């Protein structure tokens, strides 16, 4: 019950956040604005609009995870409401996990809203929308699970701005991990090889979550790989949350 209360409270606070509302509005405007580029699509209007729609859902969801997630813990400390919460029989671990699950619930609802608008837009334009598009959105959600965990992790010991910068950096580099592996393979310097290997295994491999190109171009998806990627996302998120709880438990309030 204590965990549920924190999850619900986090959800309510987040959906009232002006940043969250603004991002949802901009995401919808971006998807609807894709219609404007029709003259530039060269007969590939359906694929271009699907690609823009899916990437908009991902991009704006990542913004919510980073900008809202980076403020969740810090805001409670800054307003000193953390003292009131922890004065009750609520452990620090329960608090952190509740914040994480509450934000995931927010992201799930925001993705549902944006996906609903996206499918209605495709229906309005009479563009066929098969179930393959849903796979890309599902993979995006589990990618967000990792990003949210990282944002919460940094929020336990840094300011919102620092947390956002670090999380954005990891998100960006996380999509370049295959390049890090190639760099380690071809680098002549042992130091560069070592650092590339460390970063490759330490940072999340987010590139595997990106199947948008496959679904937009109706390419074959290896579902065994996607399932393994989802499991990887769950395990990696759990590990980051474990570190977050460990750090937060050692903080004095």
Briefly summarize what is shown.
With 253 residues, the protein is mostly helical.
Characterization of this structure:
This protein has 253 residues and is an all-alpha fold. It has one domain (2-175, 210-249). It is built from eleven helices and no strands. Helix 2 runs parallel beside helix 5 (92-124). The longest helix is centred in the first third of the chain and has 34 residues, at 45-78.
H-E string: HHHHHHHHHHH
Structure summary, number of beta strands: 0
Total domains: 1
Radius of gyration: 20 Å
Distance between the termini: 23 Å
Residue windows where pLDDT falls under 50 for at least 5 positions = none
Mind sketching the topology for me?
Layout: H1 2-15, H2 18-33, H3 45-78, H4 81-86, H5 92-124, H6 132-155, H7 160-174, H8 177-186, H9 190-202, H10 212-216, H11 223-249
Helix pairs in contact: 1-5, 2-3, 2-5, 3-5, 3-6, 3-7, 5-6, 5-11, 6-7, 6-11, 8-9
Task: Tag the structure with descriptive keywords.
78% helix, mainly alpha, single chain, 253 residues, globular
């Amino acid at each position: 019950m204590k965990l549920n209360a924190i999850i619900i409270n986090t959800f309510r606070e987040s959906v009232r956040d002006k940043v969250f509302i603004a991002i949802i509005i901009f995401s919808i405007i971006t998807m609807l604005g894709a219609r404007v580029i029709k003259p530039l699509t060269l007969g590939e209007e359906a694929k271009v609009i699907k690609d823009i729609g899916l990437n908009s859902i991902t991009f704006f969801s990542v913004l919510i995870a980073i900008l809202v997630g980076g403020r969740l813990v810090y805001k409670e400390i800054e307003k000193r409401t953390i003292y009131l919460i922890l004065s009750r029989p609520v452990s620090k671990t329960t608090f952190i996990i509740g914040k994480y699950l509450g934000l995931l619930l927010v992201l799930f609802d925001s993705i549902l809203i944006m996906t609903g608008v996206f499918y209605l837009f495709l229906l309005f334009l009479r563009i066929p929308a098969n179930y393959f598009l849903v796979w890309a959105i599902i993979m995006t959600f589990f990618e967000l699970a990792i990003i949210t965990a990282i944002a919460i992790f940094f929020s336990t010991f840094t300011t919102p701005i620092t947390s956002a910068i670090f999380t954005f950096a990891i998100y960006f580099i996380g999509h370049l991990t295959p390049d890090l592996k190639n760099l380690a393979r071809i680098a002549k310097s042992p130091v560069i090889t070592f650092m590339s290997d460390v970063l490759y295994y330490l940072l999340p491999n987010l590139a595997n979550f990106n199947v948008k190109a496959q679904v937009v171009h109706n390419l074959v998806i290896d579902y065994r790989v996607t399932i393994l990627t989802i499991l990887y996302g769950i395990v990696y998120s759990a590990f980051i949350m474990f570190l977050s709880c460990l750090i937060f438990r050692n903080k004095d309030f």
